[in-house]
Amino acid sequence: MRVAVLSDVHGNVPALDAVLADMAGQSFDAIVCLGDHVSGPVDPSGAAERIMALGAICIAGNHDRWTVDTTLKRAGRIDRFSRSRLSAEQLDWLASLAPTATLGNDMFLCHGTPSDDETPWLDNFYDGRTTVLPSEEAVAREAEGIVQEVILCGHTHIARTLRLSDGRLLANPGSVGMQLVRGTPDAHYAVIEKRRAGWQTALIGVPYDTEVAARMAEDNGFAGWGAAIRHGWAGPEALS
Fold it and tell me: What is the value of pTM for the model shown?
């Protein structure tokens, strides 16, 4: 089995198009998308259109919830903007997404952790340019009761894999559309493949024209997003 794993597109169509072009020369048994699909200042509707056409297994992230219901406490200006750009059909699709899913008997999909789409899992959120790594005990606690060999999550925008002591593989593909702190502006996704020796992960960064995406964000009134998209060094505080 060979699976393409996308997460955190955040409405960045030029980044998504670069990833889809990279995937086009490959063969996959499935595509999965781990949430936060549209909430961003580049092209929310275009992102929804492309993701809906993939035939992928998609789940909801926290920003998807906030875009569907902008009265929720944590919903912000970016979610209200994104909602205003979506068609009724796209909003219905977003509202229909479940918080978790499985792919056969092999993979479990969530956005943050299995129980909470706002909680980071494999990495804690940034403190400046520092990311605190949780202990194996803390990571394993969230995986209790999950029987699948591969567990996928997103939310932190940090591409990373780890294995628990029992052999289960946990992977975060990073973000397709919004890079922060780490200094890589490339669009990120992952390929997970079951080979003779077991599950193998490739974390892939795809270059794209970040200037086009940054200018679209700025033209829509989100200057901080433009700076982050161009260079991938900004912290989340820049995205107001």
Answer: 0.96
